[in-house]
Amino acid sequence: MEYFCGVDTGGTFTDCVVMDADGRITIAKSPSTPSDFAGGFFNALEVAADKLELSLAQLMARTKMLLHGTTVGTNAIVQMQGAKTGLITTRGHRDALIMMRSVGRSAGLPIEKLLHVSRHKKPEPIIPRTLIQEVSERIDWKGAVYLPINEDEAREAIAYLLAQDVESIAISLLWGFLNPVHELAVKKMVQETAPGVFVTCAHELIAKPGEYERTAATAINCFIGPSSSGYIQRVQQRAKSLGYVQPLLIMQASGGVATVTEAAQKPLFTIGSGPVGGIIGAQFLAGTLGHKNVITSDVGGTSFDVGIINEGRALTSSETILNQYTFFMPQLDIVSIGSGGGSVVWIDELSNTMRVGPQSAGADPGPACYNWGGKEPTITDANLILGYLNPDNFLGGKFSLDAEISLQTMQQVADRLGMDVVEAASGAGQIVEFHMADLMRQMTVQRGLDPRDFVVYAYGGGGPAHAVAYSRELGCKTVVVPLGSVASTWSALGIQSADVLHVYEKAELLIAPFDHARLNEIFAGLEEQGRRQLAEDGVAPEHMRFLRYADMKFRLQIHRVEVPVPGGLLTAPDAETLMQTFSDQYETLYGKGSAFKDAGMEIGVLRLAAAGGIPRPSLQTQARSADAALVGERDVYWRELQRFTPTNVYTGMSLAAGSRIDGPAIIEMPETTIVLRPHSVGQLDSYGNFVIELQ
Fold it and tell me: Residue 295: how many CA atoms within 13 Å on its side-chain side?
């Protein structure tokens, strides 16, 4: 039997999904190991192998495809624990990275910090000014060499940085994306002088204007490069030693996977890739179920991640803010906040009010009820106090939860507020659910979308426990817990459904009316690049597909809108249709009548997504004949009723397709618990999804 394995490393747990050639799924979880995430990676695979009655080596030898979503790069930049990095840039532009943009002091800050303007400050420099060197050279805005590079200065800059014991060198020269001849010359010198040093040119990552954003992206890539590439290569080497013979594929933030070679060279594109797997999986499932508009909601141990699928397509973004650094990177549009099962419940000393998150108990020590040394109450402790969780059947019975410790830690918060401990636990749950609903509202309403037109997909370890509450707050009517118990490891399954993907961009200013011949010429060049790369990846021509986009705006405006461009040879009418499509999308975002066509339109960037389909088993319907298995009841606190109520408890393993369960109820599935609140009805569909209708 052949297997397909997806592994997603999170801040608290590492999730694994193994699918066999017949489409049968085995899921596994293991605590993440921050000291070396490779440990948690193989621990999760070993748990899955045990369930299949195989050794880890036997599973690896039979695995046809191994895919991985990693947080190593994200953690390195957030914790500022990366490589000692130097930067070589154009003379006169040494301080571009240090100066940032005007919003650098406040970029990416949460609202509670934005309110205190006097406390705004720039982040710790990725590269200190002492490690930034200048060289005389200049490419003009058309890509012509205006001043040839001074090779002596370049060699002196490299020698200086090497004398400072840098581990990596970033090269970002002005207008280098139009003509990379100077960047490549400096890179060649670095490789000849110090072949073991990690080196990246800005044009290899980003091919469009934005000096600061390109430089920041290059600096971050080099900052996380040695640790990320080392981790990826260690995982591949150990997998190979265990008998895995195929290439390891790494999840990218753009929504596709890449080979180890590319991921090791461009680890920047792995930042934020874990949550992306969930959206890719949701997009695949939504196509199967006929859901065009979906809000994806992933509640993990540390964070709450939201993405949007509109008209069958996941929304994307080309700009990212991480640790206050703004940089360009093609990615699916995901926004995260610090609200998860491990989010700490605490008291704000200034206002004497309860707060939840963003700090998390993480995997170590974890929530207090784990009894691993945690001293502060978390959302998991609150859920245990309220009766949502079974202390003897947490994560499928892997270990027991200590309800007494949860009560003790939550009592400390309750006493400070003069509340009953149950009121405090319920209040904590309500706060975190309002945080979640508010983020989902921002992701839809602020994009001109009505959340009431969307189905909510709830996954992650905590999603099914909170989904009814935050969906009702938004006015949504339907919640889907994808594949039932698989929901807790949904991102790992989503990684399995991703294709090989490469994104290519061409920056060129085109003013309406657009020259369709020039559009054809640019896209033909981008498609040729995509075909060559996919062929190198081993993708057969019949499995290649290409999606085109144009970043458009009205003239004299700043912000661009990504507009899909049809495939094939474009004609003059196609170019006119592109203008109307942009106008329609603009009004969807900013309101009817907001488009000002008389201002003129322009294209700044043309983009091509080159995807290579990966053959994999199909999602199978689940044959079930048993009736809904009522295993008993327990007292559960429902804030809608403001009291503990004897509540039916079902086991998800024995639910029959079509079985109707009226809320309030608790459905315990392996690895997750579905909380069916009052005034809601749930049932299992033929694929194994638990579908909840809100009344």
Answer: 35
Tokens of 185: 């010359």
E-strand stretches of 75-176: 85-90, 132-135, 138-139, 145-147, 168-172
297-345 residue pLDDT tens? 999 887 888 999 998 889 888 777 777 777 788 888 888 888 888 889 9
The set of long-range contacts for 180-183, using a CB threshold of 8 Å and a minimum separation of 24, is: 181/139, 181/145, 182/137, 182/139, 182/145, 182/149
**Strands 257-259 vs 85-90: parallel, antiparallel or unpaired:** unpaired
pLDDT tens sequence across 48-59: 999 999 999 999
Q: Are 59 and 52 in contact (CB under 8 A)?
A: yes
Residue 622 has pLDDT above 60, yes or no: no
Q: Could you tell me where the DSSP H helices lie in 134-180? A: 151-163
Contact 15, 29 (CB under 8 A): yes
What token pair was written down for 85? 């990095």
Considering only CA atoms, give the Rg of the chain: 26
Please provide the DSSP assignment of 580-646 as one string: HHHHHHHHHHH-TT---GGG-EEEEEEEEEEEE----PPPPPPP--SPPEEEEEEEEEETTTTEEEE
Q: Which helix (H) or strand (E) holds 443?
A: helix 421-445
Task: Tell me the residue ranges of DSSP E strands in 10-93.
Answer: 13-20, 25-31, 63-69, 85-90
Element (H, E) at 277: helix 273-289
Amino acid at 69: G
Assess contact for 687 and 479: CB atoms under 8 A: no
In the 3-class helix/strand/coil scheme, how is 220-241 assigned residue by residue? Answer: HHHHHHHHHHHHHHHHHHHHHH
Strand order in the sheet with 3-9: 25-31, 13-20, 3-9, 63-69, 248-251, 257-259, 500-511, 601-612, 544-554, 561-565
**Own/partner pairs, 116-120, CB within 8 angstroms, 24+ separation:** none
Tell me the pLDDT tens digit for each residue of 424-477. Answer: 999 999 999 999 999 999 999 888 889 999 999 999 888 999 999 999 999 999
Q: Is the pLDDT of residue 660 over 50?
A: yes
Beta bridge partners of 295: 308, 456
